[in-house]
């Protein structure tokens, strides 16, 4: 209790909390895009439950990982060197997660542009994934993002309480926004390709980070925000043309 009171009256602790919450919320965008895309492969009546369960279990996993901070820090130690690169367990996890995202996004882009009708993750009439498989994929990707964010958080503060509060706030925001984002993606088909492009970008960034080439996240999210803004203008233009066409008739 005394520790909590001390943190509550420490301006540096509040600054660390605000910074960590902002970082976790930014990283939550990656998770939400992936969660929306994966759960759209489920039957319509399971999609909302899949999103809530996947994100809820992700919260439990993140809190469990926070309890093993000392072990996580050890993941930065070099395991082996190859072709002039030093690889740690963290690097291997990031590379593996990035490769999975690139494979997933490429596979679904192929389905979207293939002239032959094939089942894809956005076709609600033909669910192509089991409920359990969707949850497992959400947890695997969240583990990758969690390890990266927690290791970053360790470098910003040594207070476990602040890390826990930041994680709970970020995951709570994900729970609130998940259904709305998935519905938005379903109602706007052109957003599908943009979301898949985001996954490709995030996947390549994770791979580059695993090989020691850190890309500032500010560049990545600025590019994503710009692309989303352009797509928003396109959507507004299409809606206006549709209204004008309806009025002309």
Oligomer: single chain
Catalogue the unreliable spans: 120-125
Q: Percent of residues in helical segments? A: over 70%
Mean pLDDT, rounded to whole units?
76
Strand content: under 5%
| N-to-C span | 69 Å
Secondary structure class reads mainly alpha
Shape: globular
Can you summarize the main beta sheet?
2 strands, antiparallel
How much is the radius of gyration in Å?
A: 20 Å
Number of strands: 2
- Specify the number of helices: 9
Overall tally of domains: 2
- Could you give the order of the helices and strands? HHHHEEHHHHH
Enumerate the strands of the largest sheet in spatial order, edge to edge or round the barrel.
Answer: 1-2
């Amino acid at each position: 209790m005394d520790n909590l009171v001390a943190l509550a009256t420490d301006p540096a602790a509040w600054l660390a909390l605000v910074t960590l919450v902002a970082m976790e919320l930014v990283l939550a965008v990656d998770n939400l895009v992936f969660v929306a895309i994966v759960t759209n492969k489920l039957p319509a009546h399971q999609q909302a439950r899949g999103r809530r369960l996947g994100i809820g279990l992700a919260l439990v996993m993140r809190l469990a990982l926070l309890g093993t901070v000392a072990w996580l820090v050890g993941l930065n130690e070099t395991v082996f060197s190859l072709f002039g690169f030093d690889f740690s367990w963290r690097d291997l996890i990031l590379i593996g997660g990035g490769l999975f995202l690139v494979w997933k996004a490429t596979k679904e882009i192929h389905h979207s542009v293939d002239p032959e009708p094939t089942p894809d993750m956005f076709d609600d009439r033909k669910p192509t994934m089991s409920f359990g498989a969707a949850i497992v994929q959400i947890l695997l990707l969240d583990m990758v993002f969690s390890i990266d964010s927690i290791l970053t958080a360790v470098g910003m503060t040594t207070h476990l309480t602040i890390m826990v509060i930041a994680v709970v706030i970020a995951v709570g925001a994900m729970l609130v926004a998940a259904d709305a984002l998935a519905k938005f993606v379903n109602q706007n088909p052109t957003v599908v390709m943009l979301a898949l492009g985001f996954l490709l970008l995030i996947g390549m960034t994770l791979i580059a980070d695993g090989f020691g080439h850190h890309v500032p996240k500010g560049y990545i999210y600025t590019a994503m925000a710009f692309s989303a803004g352009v797509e928003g203008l396109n959507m507004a233009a299409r809606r206006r043309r549709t209204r004008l066409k309806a009025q002309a008739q």
